[in-house]
Amino acid sequence: MIFSGKAFHAYRFHAMKLPFKFAMAVLFMASGSLVDAQTLLQIYSFTNGFDGSVLSPSGLTLGNDGNFYGTTVKGGASGDGSVFQVTTNGTLNTLGYFVNNSGPPSALTLGNDGNFYGTIGGRYGNVFQVTPNGTVTTLASFFGTNGVNPTAVLLGRDGNFYGTTSGGGITNNSVFPAEGGMGTLFQVTTSGTLTMLVSFNVTNGAFPSGLTHANDGSFYGTTAYGGNTNLNGGFGFGTLFQVTTNGTLTTLVSFNATNVVAPNGLAQGNDGNFYGTTQYGGGDNYGTVFRLTSNGTLTTLGTFLSTNGVYPNGLTLGNDGNFYGTTSEGGVHGYGTVFQLTTSGTLTTLASFNFTNGASPNSLTLGNDGNFYGTTSRGGISNSTYTGGMGTVFRILVVPIITIQPQSQTNYEGATVTFSVSATSFEPMSYQWMKNDANLTNGGSISGATNASMTISRIADSDAASYSVIVTNAEGSVMSTSASLTVNDSLFIAAQPLSQKVGAGSMVIFTATAYGKPPFVFQWSFNRTPIGSPTTGTNFSSYTLNNVGTNQSGNYTVQVFNPLGSLTSSNAVLTVIPQPGLAMQILAGYPVLDVQGTLGNNFLVQYSTNLADTNWMNLLSLTNLSTSPYQFLDAAGVGQPARFYRAFFTQ
Known about the structure:
The chain is an all-beta fold.
């Protein structure tokens, strides 16, 4: 147990400012990845000397200086563990060490004041503060009724810390006779005021894991047992709960053996849902990954099968919106894995530990550089006392992961095609598209050669090839699978002429676009009679009618020829509506207008105080004219020195 030296004599924490920094690890690239080119970089290996050894499930915490801070259970000057700082390049500085600690220290949590906060487990336990230079202060102690064996604390929005204890609080001798309480949820201030907010009682759960601070300001968490005590011999399979900062707890889900067994805690995604892992469950009982909505809807997304890991730890949200985590065992060598989980449920193994670079990894921490860092509880350097190794600090080196490959396409000559790739990465990515393994550049028909999507306009036979893309980040590159482009020379009318309804006197333009082997010849027809002269040239043709009359209503088509044959377009029906008649009379001093038009069509009546084209104002819009003539009164026209009217067909 750790206490302030001023309060207790028997337990001491010694802060050390060492004259040198530990930098003993040899950097190397790990082997045994389950996905090609995914790599683990060991940046430090513990020696059980002054630096300690990571034999507890304590991960890393990012400091304001961009370095990471953590704790060890063994080693240090007294042999009882240490507090350390490690840089992203693996330089380790031991800040202080524990003396006579009663249990493993938790991971550290950064406070708003720049200090770190953590807990010591074991019998009862306590909460402590560590300054960046190693000065420690014990803030509060647990004594059973307010909790036993606390987990890591979480910083709340109010600047206080919140956490759970795995025991203590209310006892239930009928369900858990051997346990001294089923755990609590507590608040502790930076000045050391400890308040128990919730005591778990089996019905609302038992033996909670850590908390997650959600976007709604509440905390969410899980318990390993309790909930539905009709299951699991009265023990229950655990719960998902929501709790406010004043201790109001709501049980959202009572788990059962078919969905979640021994959940590890939660992480909230960008979509607002919660994601987590279970220590057990699934077909082989090696653990699962799941999604939970805040209203309690649970979906199992995937299971672990030994080859992709065994017994997963908690999840960490990446900058790309995906989750990343580790498994304590399994993988190629059996020493654990690193995996990625998408919100849609795709589970990808990124790398396997091989003992030399670590074994039994803990949860991951996201660095300011966008990469993930972590510790392992075993592996690395070993000796006769610690044959299983004393743990490592590692960084995940992950080249981009292509999630959607470019797809092969077939299209007609002259068409436009686009190839796309989708990839995720811890870091910014760049793209380089290739044609038959040769780099493409922008220009001519090519655009987007260095983007996620590349477009080829007006494709020709020379564009028929194999296309792929290289996606690169700071850690390396990955090449997509090849996608083929097949160019069809057959004639195809890609854009048919469209039917139109216009008012008499309008201008009408019919257009058509053809794909296939050039050259093209277009012959337009009206009611199956050729009109105008054939046109030759591009794959686009138009036919224009000026000042159309009702006698030009009918069917318009175009016949297209190329070296491989001919095609006739579908009919484009032209309907020419006569312009409406407009009459005016004065009744009782008011202008009264009569609009006479073709029923079922739309007409617009406008007025002006002069005949300038730009001075016409809308007076009445007639939709789907149902009676003709249509009479109406222009009340605003009374007493005007001059007022002109016009009416015409509208769409």
